[in-house]
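Handoff note, outgoing to incoming analyst
You'll be picking up this chain. Sequence as last confirmed:
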Amino acid sequence: MSTGSISLDILLNKILIDAISGGNESIRAIRKRYPSLSEKEAYEILAMVSATAQSSNDSAELVVTAPPSFALKTKPTKITVREMLMGARKSILITGYSLSDYFAELVDCVIQKSQEGVLVNFFFVNDIESQKTFDRLCRYKGKFLRIYNYPKQEDKMSALHAKAISVDQTDTLITSANLSYHGQEGNIELGARIHSKELAKQVEDIFTSLVFKRIFVEL
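Most recent structure output, in case you need it:
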């Protein structure tokens, strides 16, 4: 959280830390910055800031693809992607640079979710004609499974390169990993899973705008 003022950010951080530890240093810091405040008013400010911090459910965790020999205390990409897709109850937004046969099992999961009434928006893909798994996905497109293509651009190097999954408008994975074996298991990839309604909405809004402007075209 940033206020745009370094000194105010330091004070705010002190208040948050103090609220967690149960100390009184932040009261003195508040009154030092705002000498006209009474002790009661300083406590009221502390209470409001603490309540705001505690009411936020936003959180984030690191998600990593790495060789099996790496002993990392982080969630693997493959398990995270599977968990998010299988746990979806209302909606799935998913983007992919490529879609390999390795991902076929989770394509079946996405299809099944759409048949259960989960709205799936799949933003895809480069050279779709050459990808067999994509053919199966297309056979089930309809009201609850919408597939969007990024048409070839004048700049031949231009591509859909974003890798993101957003589920139920609350849970978003932004990662460097493709929907492929190497992306999910073989490479070294890094991402973040963010539990935030605000960020999920921003991601949805971006792709809605791209569809509206026909940067993406529904198949």
